[in-house]
Amino acid sequence: DRLHNIAALISPQPELVPHDRYISVHPVPSEPETIPGSEIHILVTEKARIGALLCFEELLPEIAAEASRQGAEVFLSLSNNSSFDNTKGIHLLSRQTILRAAETGTYIARVTNTGITQIVNPYGLVTAEAKPLSKEKLITEVSLSNRVTPYSQYGDTTMLVIIFAAWFCVLIMMRKQAPRYY
Question: What is the helix, strand, coil percentage profile of the chain, to 5?
């Protein structure tokens, strides 16, 4: 009666690259019958170290950040968007992939059954995209990256420091421009 949300790596040459799997550590909260995995796991192939984001996990920056810290060179996001049908929800969900790519500085290939399938570069720019509810192949070159961005390393603390620094600069500029009365 219970299940896992799993991404499986099936190798054509298991003697060279063994079969592997990643079990979602944060499955959809509204599906209590889904058992979460115990750890974030990188899928290793002869070509790349792949970080997997399964469905709900693409909404959680900490999953991608941890996979990046573990050496993910590229990400694969697998998402079932059928419950959103053809609503604006599928467009909003695809924006999360853009954020994860920019946060990790890594290419992400997002594959969906009914939503927006896309490939996003490390700067958050969509390099290839399929229309919702269509069957299309997306082909593009990606480069692998094993660098860990400040956001992946420190999370939201990075943004708080940037916001504080910008606020401090604005205060200094306002003080310099304020009229002085002698």
Answer: 35, 20, 45
